[in-house]
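Structure representation:
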Amino acid sequence: MKAYSLDLRQRVVNAMKAGESQADTARRFEISHTSVQNFLKLDAAGSLEPRKKKKRADRKFTPAALDALKAWLEEKNDLTLKQIQQRLAADLQIHVSRPSIWDRLVAMNLSWKKKRPMPPNGNAPMSGRDGKTGRPKSATRR
């Protein structure tokens, strides 16, 4: 979401200085009460300028790291995000969060197994041939 313009911020502060209530000012300019309060704080601090957006931290995924990631998934595509995270830390000394890995894999259009490997469960229901129960059609009640 974009920051409110400097012009709007100034008009809000001017309305408040003219004696208008916060609720009326927020309603009039169609902004939240919190925005009105924040504009007043910024004005008291001396500048209504919006804060500069922080640039994302230096990307930790170097081209070499991306190549290694692609090779790992071609070799074994059932790695979990946690396993990928551990390999990045151990092999390449790259420490990133799992959501960062997820974002990078999505951006690279790479596929990997989404479920953790688990032993088969003998009690789990199976999808049946009739699409409703785990029983074959011949075993369904009529």
The chain has a mean pLDDT of 80. Residues 33-45 form the longest helix (13 residues).
